[in-house]
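Objective 1.3, modelling of assemblies. Example input:
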Amino acid sequence: MISIQKGEDLITITLQNILSYRKNDEDFINLVLNWNKKVLIELEGFYPVEVIFDHDEIRFKINDFDKKINLKVKMGIYTFLDLAYGRLNPIKAVLKRKLKIKGLLKIGTLLKFMKIFLKTMKMVASDPNNNYYEFNKETR
Amino acid sequence: MTETKDRNIYKKISKEDVLKKLTEIFEEKNVTNKSGDLYPYSYDMTECEPHMPDFIVIPENTLQLIELVKFCNSNLIPIVPYISGNNVGGLTIPENGGILVNFGKKMNKILHVDDNMMYALLEPGVTFGQLKKYLDENYPHLRYSYPFAPPYAGVVGNVLLSGMNNLSCKIGSMGDSINGLEVITADGEIARIGSCFYGKDEAPPDSWWCRYPMPDLMGVFINWQGMTGLVTKCAVQLWFNPPIKKTYLAIVFGLTDVAQVMREVGRTDIIDDISAVSIEVIKMAVELPIPTKFSGEPDFASMFSISAKTKNQFNAKEEILFNEVENLNKQGKNVILVNADEFVKLFNLRVRCYLDLPSVVLPLVEYSGLTWFGSYAPSHKLEELIEKVNKLFNKHNITPFIYMKMMKSGHYAIFRPIMRYNKFKEGEEERYHMLLEEITDVCIDLGCIPYKTPAWMTEKMRKKINPGWINLFEKIKKCMDPNNIFNPGRWNT
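Predicted structure (tokens):
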């Protein structure tokens, strides 16, 4: 079981929502558990958020970022939506400089991040359900 | 238990005899004077002072109500109309006691939907959820407009009080789209107003199609908060339900810039509905009861709904919207326009409560108390209103909750600062009421006109309104309700 910090600003609320989608999925748990990396995600026009993968926890920071960040990802909101809704392929996005990644050479970290984040984001976007209470029956 | 105000409304007849008469009219099962039954009707979500009714009656038909009105008029007993008690203005709190008429239980039929002339004839107890379900199942090509209200709120109460709706940028206030009314006046006479006015007996169901061109007597009942008669039927306009619908979410940076964004987009004349909320309100929907705004976050989220019959028509409207936003950004505004459905799915589906109306809007129901300054506002003053009201929220250390709408393509706006609070926490009502009073003073000074107004607010307004208006208002009230039996206390009557 992975615990994900509750978001309080627009970006961390979004990240929490996306990552929570698979929090009970075994593949996702295996990917995240003990990954122990720090990724800085920035949506242009907004502000950067540090996502901290720490053992069985995912936490967020919107200031006082750690000095050692393993990966930095920057994109505009339209790229973010295009990637989620499958209108843009991540490789093309990088080539077109729509998705800027610092740490590209850390292939292992990058690929794992893609599997954790981009894949989950696409799963959330492609889910046909539009009803919160269908996902969260316990809060009905 | 709520205290009953000191009054003497049973001078002419004893309470026992009133009960006897009510039982005769409505039958025993539809009348109560038990304090446990009366209590829930004595208060609402607001901080308005509670007051007990003396009786609740559940009418089934108009004949019963005619008899009730005649009886109350000759015995000077107040009548308070009630549908579901969801108004945010203490409007159905029986300030002087009397008989509360609960329309919501049995007089809640959709009497007729006219497919040809696109209207629905309703009894007062019909709710938004009921009407939507009925139309979706039986007339999917027609739609009604829905407010920021739960599905169990009443349609007729809202239209008579000129509520807003999710087609407001196109059609304006709900009061504008009333085709006809059936009302019982103080002498117990039934009057039909609108194109249904021909004929001595029942109006044919297909005769409720228009409001004009006869003298518009509807004005004697709209926005009068039940002070001039008892409405028993209401015909409301419906609209063609276009197959293509999309909502755009504009994320706006800069505290007051949203005002110009709403105005300019409103003027494009292509949008069904334009609303905007403080960014904190978006977060309230995702279980953050006291959200704060972080540095770098936008100030407002505005929603623009577009609908179209064909893809080409939709594309044209979309192009106009995109161009308008591009122009605004060129002028130095900072607006990010995204597809609301797409964004909300990634952000949190709970936010759909703002999109899928009618719905239980979480931020409006998660606290035991809710109050607001809901007003029609001059749209050119929105910047000033936002700035001043935001300051007041901050001064009182209360999370800003500003809700706005652009009405009728931008002819005017709705400005509604809202407050949720814990009704049962010592001192909270007073604290929030103090903020609300300050907001009221600032907004009235800037020309706002509150709607669904509690009596303490109309008292403030009366000091500003021209004497001629007040005198005319009093004369009409006296003429329509000489014994002051209809919802007394409203507008300080």
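The CA atoms of residues 59 and 65 of chain B lie 7 Å apart.
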